[in-house]
Amino acid sequence: MNDTPQRPGRRTTPAASAKRNSRGLLRRSRRGHAPPTADPGHPRDPGHTRGADASDLASQRLDTYSRHTEHEAGRLRRQAAAGRIFVPSAVTILAICAGLTALRSTLNGHIDLALALVVAAAVLDALDGRVARMMNAATRMGAEIDSLADVINFGVVPGGIVYLALTGDLGSTDVAWIFVLVYVCAIVLRLARFNTLLDDEDAPAYTKEFFVGVPAPAAAILVLLPVGLHEQFGSGWWTSGTAVGIWMVVVAALAVSRVPTASTKATKVPPSALALLLVGVAVTAALLLTYPYVLMLVLIVAYLAHIPFAWRNQRWVAARPEQWDARPSERRAERRADRAVSGGRRRRRPSVSRSHARLGLRRPGHTSPNDPTDSH
After folding, report:
1. How many whole angstroms separate alpha carbon 5 and alpha carbon 2?
2. How far apart, in Å, are the Cα atoms of 118 and each of 114, 304, 352?
3. Quick check: 93 and 146 in contact, CB under 8 A?
4. Cβ(182)–Cβ(237) under 8 Å?
5. Contact 132, 138 (CB under 8 A)
6. How many Cα neighbours within 13 Å face the side chain of 362?
7. For a disulfide at 154, which of 83, 89, 127, 216, Cβ 3.0-4.6 Å?
8. What's the average model confidence in pLDDT over 304-333?
9. What domains are there in the chain, each with its CATH number?
10. What is the pLDDT of residue 24?
11. Which residue blocks in 319-353 are alpha helix, DSSP H?
12. What is the C-alpha separation between 278 and 286, in angstroms, rounded?
């Protein structure tokens, strides 16, 4: 029988004993008394376990941070790419809005505003491609949107403006509508050919300096010439149905033809001509603000006058394969050297006509290798 007095009403259970022991261990560890541990290096050694857990935790945190950084960088790259794609596409959409608003202005009788909006659409069309190349955001979708915008702005809209603005002078509206359809279809075919030529990777480098046919923006300005003449000089033979129809057919033929025209993409202004260029810009701005339709007529005449020179330059380069990959400045130097050697005259290859060949005639001083009268 145990004589040790016990407190009445309090029983000791195994769970309570374990709890008191854990509290004791905790108090001793706080006082600096470490609990009994296993041998160092043992798998159950707390120090060994804590070191392993700390290294694993550090590696896990590093991996998590790396994954988060990569994810954030990828998200920023995607946002930047989306922003780059958005800007040139937005410029193209603005061009479409300007072209369609030009039709509405024509219906309301505001011809001046309609022509200004067509010019604005042409300027925006020239900018969207350059912006895409500068931002490295050229995509297939952007190219398709640009082609559709060209069909609307430089095909449908100019044809509609000519039809709506000159309805009272064209006579038969049915015949006039046929000419409008011919022009619009020609622009569609011209743009389709342009897109196929872009995929030709084997084309020589000099082909980038020339357009095949009149480009769509230039064709739009050309076909609006009767409208500009009507606004500047009133009605006349230039606004008759016959003259307008013939002019639209001529512009459509130039658009689908293979006549080379100069491309401004490869044009570089030398520093010596910069002052003259600025004077030209000032004169153009003055005419635009005072006599816009006279400026339109001057630009159209100048553009048509450049076509023979562009055709001659293209033929000169195409006949000399060694100049295909040369820069334009090098080709100009070569042409100047050729003119200097020939004394300013074109050097022609000596040719013998068929009649001379049949009759056996020859030029004075010229001997044939098979001539029996040759003294050699």
Report:
1. 8
2. 6, 20, 54
3. no
4. no
5. yes
6. 11
7. 216
8. 81
9. 82-263+285-321 (1.20.120.1760)
10. 55
11. 328-341
12. 12
SS3 283: helix
Following CA atoms 15, 16, 22, 24 in sequence, which dihedral angle do they give, to the nearest 10 degrees?
-160
- Cα four-point dihedral sign 66, 69, 75, 81: negative
Mean pLDDT confidence for 193-206: 75
The full DSSP string for 93-141 is HHHHHHHHHHHHHHHTT-HHHHHHHHHHHHHHHHHHHHHHHHTT---HH
- Residues 239/229, Cβ–Cβ less than 8 Å: yes
Q: Is the dihedral of CA 200, 206, 208, 210 positive or negative?
A: negative
Beta bridge partners of 262: 210
End-to-end CA separation in angstroms for the chain: 158
Token couple for 86 = 């958005």
Query: Could you report the per-residue pLDDT of 163-174, keeping only the tens digit for each?
Result: 998 877 777 788
| Angle in degrees, CA 145, 154, 138, rounded to 5 | 30
Which residue from 332, 304, 303, 305 is spatially nearest to 317, judged by alpha carbons? 332
CB 207 within 8 A of CB 188: no
> What's the rounded Cα separation, in Å, for the pair 115 and 213?
23
- CA-to-CA distance for 26 and 309, rounded, in angstroms? 99
- Spatial separation of the C-alpha atoms in residues 162 and 244, rounded to whole Å: 9
Torsion sign across C-alpha atoms 72, 74, 77, 83:
negative
CA 17 to chain centre: 83
Contact 257, 205 (CB under 8 A): no
- What span, in angstroms and rounded, lies between the C-alpha atoms of 255 and 125? 17
Element (H, E) at 79: helix 46-107
Which pair of tokens denotes residue 101?
Answer: 């608003």
Q: How far apart are CA 301 and CA 162, in angstroms?
A: 19
The encoded tokens of residue 307 equal: 């076509």
Segments of 241-301 assigned E as strands: 260-262
Where do we find the tokens 């069309």? 125
pLDDT class of 54 with cuts at 50, 70, 90 = low
Which segments of 168-291 does DSSP mark as H helices, in order? Answer: 173-198, 216-223, 225-233, 241-256, 274-290
pLDDT tens string 221-232? 999 999 999 999
Q: Tell me the pTM.
A: 0.68
